[in-house]
Design brief:
Strand content: 5-15%
Low-confidence stretches: none
Number of helices: 19
Number of strands: 13
Distance between the termini: 36 Å
Largest sheet: 9 strands, mixed
Radius of gyration: 24 Å
Oligomer: single chain
Shape: globular
Strand order of the largest sheet: 5-6-13-12-8-9-10-11-7
Mean pLDDT: 93
Helix content: 40-55%
């Protein structure tokens, strides 16, 4: 880390050995600083959960270390064995990963999903309002459960990504295509929970459109007032009942991967803003592209199959395709059940129950102060300690950290000659400095097509409501909670990610051009500027 960077972003290494590691900031999942409780959750649950998954898969990685430096999240991959033993480790890993790729769909349906649902229900049943011993034991159990759930998360995500890459490799081998997106177009049109959520919200908008009193109420004033005004008419009350049912099923979405971020159930204004977007324009039916995607996929596959003459290659192709198709919807489905229902929903509710008990006992001033503690402090508060001062200190530090410009790397710079995993590039984006020449910003091709329009630059979820139908969304990254906006935007440009990033996958499902991983789009594109997005070339022309 340079002297200038050290002065602007000072790091106190809790373990001096960590300074010898390479730490990369994770702006795709955490584009903003993370509150102390969530940062502690990552260290206590995600890291050991990743370790369990890596060991189960006999992975070359031991884990993905995560740490918060000045409230910004950084990751550092840790190898399972020394470099000289890596060949043997990979040889042991390959058949295990092959089994997990081939059987991921079955494992998800029969093992992982039932376990996630059961464990999430257990979180909702934890007693955090009783005596100190009961409440602290409940916190300990919450962390144990969450580690189990996040192990299942990575036992899903790692084989899912591997299954996609295996199919991509064999498809390229068969067809000789040089278009990076083409293999993944064979996996489009498969239903998933994000598209299901978007369709349910779109259908609510169509019902509201057919009820003038409902449409008028939803369009007027603040979202909370709009919902209250629905109670003034019979059809408004009827529609609101269906909206509440929608929230009960799909409303555990939060706008950020942070326990401090409220869900749609708590803040339905997020859903209402998307409803308004659907009502104000002829927004695309989220299911409308599926038939065309399926036809396109079958045409590509027919062309590939026609090239295969070797029966063994044909069998390998069909096996890879079947596994990839079974795995592909799990990108969104695992998020629905784990990131949303378990983390944003049940875990946040559990922590708020603990915070409510602390406020009642006079050990916190406000429930929202709990996000500025760590879990050790939360346990101490439940055991009887006054946490008001600790929460105030945590809130002050977080506010100061939010003003810092976090560098992309900390610790020891990476070896420039080290091989780069192509799968990680497809997910996180191309490494290296940004490329901007003659008003052309280069990123990665994310979704085909070309469109010119008004750029709406969104640097935080609080600004998402400014995106109008027909505009081009320019943002750091997207998450599943953002997917309803895809039905009305004309294109997408992101700072982070590659062809396998969430935004690229969803953009392809909605058939809108997308350029990913530009690194600096939100910094160099002015809000309201006219830009041209070339999703085939991976370029953005700034007028």
């Amino acid at each position: 880390m340079s002297t200038d960077t050290a002065a602007e972003f000072p790091v106190a290494w809790s373990d001096p050995a960590d300074a010898a590691l390479t730490w990369a900031r994770d702006p795709m999942h955490f584009p903003a600083p993370v509150t102390p409780l969530s940062a502690d959750f990552l260290i206590r649950c995600l890291v050991p959960g990743t370790s369990v998954a890596c060991e189960t898969l006999v992975s070359p990685l031991a884990t993905l270390r995560q740490a918060a430096f000045n409230s910004w999240i950084y990751i550092s991959p840790q190898l399972a064995v020394a470099p000289e033993a890596m060949g043997e480790r990979i040889a042991a890993h390959m058949p295990v990963m092959g089994d997990h790729m081939d059987n991921l769909g079955r494992r998800w349906d029969e093992e992982y999903l039932p376990a996630v649902v059961r464990l999430t229900d257990e979180i909702d049943g934890l007693d955090l309002s009783g005596d100190g011993a009961t409440a602290t034991a409940a916190i300990d159990r919450l962390l144990e459960i969450s580690t189990e759930i996040w192990a299942l998360h990575f036992l899903t995500v790692f084989p899912k990504l591997a299954a996609g890459e295996r199919f991509s490799d064999i498809y390229v081998q068969v067809t000789g295509t040089t278009e990076e997106m083409e293999p993944y177009r064979c996996l489009q049109g498969i239903p998933n929970k994000s598209l299901e959520t978007d369709r349910a919200l779109w259908e609510l908008a169509q019902e509201a459109r057919a009820m003038p009193a409902v449409a008028e109420a939803l369009a007027a004033g603040p979202a909370a007032a709009a919902l209250e005004s629905l109670d003034r008419s019979p059809e408004g009350r009827e529609w609101r009942e269906r909206f509440e049912a929608f929230l009960a099923e799909y409303g555990n979405r939060a706008q950020e991967l942070d326990l401090a971020s409220p869900t749609w159930i708590e803040e339905p204004s997020f859903a209402v803003e998307n409803l308004r977007r659907y009502l104000s324009a002829d927004a695309a039916d989220p299911e409308g592209q599926r038939a065309r995607h399926q036809e396109e996929a079958e045409a590509l596959l027919a062309g590939a199959r026609a090239r295969i003459t070797d029966p063994d290659l044909a069998a390998a192709f069909e096996n890879a395709l079947a596994a990839a198709r079974a795995a592909w919807p799990l990108e969104e489905d695992h998020s629905h059940y784990i990131d949303q229902r378990s983390f944003a929903g049940a875990t946040r509710r559990a922590v708020k129950r603990a915070a409510t008990a602390l406020v009642g006992a006079g050990r916190l001033d406000d429930v929202e102060d709990v996000w500025f503690l760590d879990f050790a402090a939360l346990r101490a508060g439940l055991a009887g300690a006054d946490m008001r001062g600790a929460a105030a200190d945590g809130r002050r530090r977080f506010a100061a950290d939010s003003l810092l410009e976090a560098p992309p790397l900390l610790g020891t710079p990476p070896d420039p000659d080290a091989p780069i995993d192509p799968g990680l590039v497809k997910f996180f984006g191309t490494p290296g400095p940004p490329v901007l020449e003659d008003r052309v910003l280069t990123g990665s091709a994310g979704s085909r097509g070309r469109v010119e329009g008004v750029a709406r630059v969104v640097r935080s979820v609080d600004e998402l409501h400014r995106v109008q139908p027909g505009e081009i969304l320019v943002c750091r990254s997207t998450t599943p909670s953002w997917t309803p906006v895809f039905a009305s935007i004309a294109g997408l440009v992101t700072d982070t990610g590659g062809v396998l990033a969430h935004g690229a996958i969803v953009a392809r499902e909605y058939a809108i051009p997308a350029v990913m991983g530009t690194k600096i789009a939100t910094a160099v594109i002015e809000d309201g500027a006219r830009i041209t997005v070339d999703g085939d070339a991976g370029e953005v022309l700034i007028a």
